[in-house]
Amino acid sequence: MDFTHVSQRISESVPTEFGSVFNRSVELFKKVWLQGFLTLLLTFLTMIPFYILIYAPMLAMGISDPEAFEHNGMPPMFVGIMILVMPVFSIGVMVIGLCLNAAFLRICRKYDMDEMGRDDYFSISKSPI
To answer: What is the mean pLDDT of the chain?
Structure first.
C-alpha cells in the first residue's frame, strides 16, 4: 500500500462524527467496566508481594538495629543489596502490569467485535493477533 493509495482512501472515506465515536466508547465502557475493575484488583494483588519483598530488608534492618535510621547514611551492605534487588523487582512489577493491561485490551477488543469467549486474564492467545 503506497502513499497515493492511502491518500485516495482517506479522501473517499466518509467523515468521522465525534458523536458516534463517543457513543461507541460509552457503550464499550458499559460492557467492560467490571473487567477493568478486576484488572486493577488483580494488578494490585499481584504487585503486593513484590512491594513486601522490597521493604522487607528495611524492616529487618530497623528491627535488628533501631538506631540505623537515625543516621543520615545507609550501611554500604544494605545499599549494595538494594542496588542489585530493586531493578529485578521493578521489572517484575512492570511485567505484571503490562501483561494484565494487555489481557484487558484483548477483552475490550473481544467485546468491541462482539466475539464470544471467556474473559481470560492469564492465558496466552493461540490465535494470531
So the answer is: 84
Q: Is-contact 117 105, C-beta < 8 A?
A: no
Q: Which cell goes with 5?
A: 493509495
**Is residue 16, in this structure, part of any structural domain at all?**
no
Contact predicate 78/109, CB 8 Å: no
Residue 3 located in a structural domain: no
Q: Is residue 9 part of a domain?
A: no
State the pTM of this model. 0.69
Q: Is residue 112 part of a domain?
A: yes
Cα 104 to Cα 110: distance, rounded to the nearest angstrom: 10
Q: Which structural domain range is residue 84 located in?
A: 26-129
Half-sphere CA count of 62, side-chain side, radius 13 A: 7
